[in-house]
Q: What sequence folds into this?
């Protein structure tokens, strides 16, 4: 059996950076509180918990001597300010690309633009960006959500970092006809797109793909959907212990792809076991 690993695959720059910051804080302070799960990967969260991570869901759970960590997706400005006041040390793991989107949203609002965010309104990153907007704003999922009968004054458009550029272009094209002034910031990060492109390339080379990543990871789910849509037999596992080894039998070449929140140690464990086959 031959093994081909998608490239690039696994941790994106922002999540890798955040995990490194968190590990450093855990080594220094022992216990660190994260507001919301710091990464959409249950095995990595369990590993970090064994090092002293405590996941909290509310800023009110932070006491004055706590060390707190802000995840790569970021949080709202109000939460950030409150955490600073309530904690002893705050480690800000917000990805620089997310921070850029927050800053763009803030500046658009201060210049009097109605801010339109292309993204998922329930996603923590989008909720965080909304928290930087003082003024009119709305979140849309795509061009289908644009009201063709409405008229706008000044529109400022930006995107959740994981959207794709074609959707952003479609939305902008629709708004151009509905407004006098439009300002667009392309705040899309290429990491997600690159991982989706890499699994498409992989699909043409293999007889089956194992996608490894958390079941709570939207970008891992997307990789599974792409692989399946290309007609490639696909298995989704969170770790090597879930692999159905019978499924691998008779397949000449197996591909491995991982979501942007899957740590290296889980990928290496899987590829190591596959290599031993
Ligand atoms: S996907 Fe992009 S924006 Fe999101 S954490 Fe990773 S590098 Fe940052």
A:
């Amino acid at each position: 059996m031959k093994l081909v690993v998608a490239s690039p695959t696994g941790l994106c720059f922002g999540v890798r950076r955040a995990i490194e910051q968190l590990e450093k804080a855990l080594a220094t302070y022992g216990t660190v509180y994260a507001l919301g799960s710091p990464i959409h990967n249950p095995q990595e969260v369990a590993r970090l918990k064994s090092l002293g991570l405590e996941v909290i869901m509310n800023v009110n759970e932070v006491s004055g001597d706590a060390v707190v960590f802000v995840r790569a997706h970021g949080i709202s400005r109000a939460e950030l300010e409150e955490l600073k006041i309530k904690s002893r040390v705050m480690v800000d793991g917000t990805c620089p690309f997310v921070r850029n989107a927050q800053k763009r949203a803030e500046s658009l609002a201060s210049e009097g633009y109605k801010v339109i965010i292309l993204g998922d309104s329930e996603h923590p990153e989008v909720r965080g960006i909304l928290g930087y907007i003082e003024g009119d704003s709305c979140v849309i999922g795509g061009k289908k959500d644009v009201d063709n009968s409405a008229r706008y004054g000044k529109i400022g458009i930006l995107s959740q970092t994981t959207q794709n550029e074609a959707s952003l272009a479609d939305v902008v094209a629709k708004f151009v006809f509905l407004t006098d002034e439009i300002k667009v910031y392309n705040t899309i990060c290429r990491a997600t797109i690159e991982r989706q492109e890499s699994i498409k390339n992989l699909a043409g080379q293999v007889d089956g793909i194992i996608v490894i990543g958390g079941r709570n990871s939207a970008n891992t789910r997307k990789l599974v959907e792409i692989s399946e849509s290309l007609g490639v037999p696909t298995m989704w596992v969170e770790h090597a212990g879930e692999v159905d080894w019978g499924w691998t039998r008779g397949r000449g070449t197996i591909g491995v792809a991982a979501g942007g929140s899957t740590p290296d140690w889980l990928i290496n464990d899987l590829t190591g076991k596959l290599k031993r086959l």
The CA atoms of residues 210 and 235 lie 5 Å apart. The chain has three domains: 2-10+191-276, 13-95, 97-188. The radius of gyration is 21 Å.
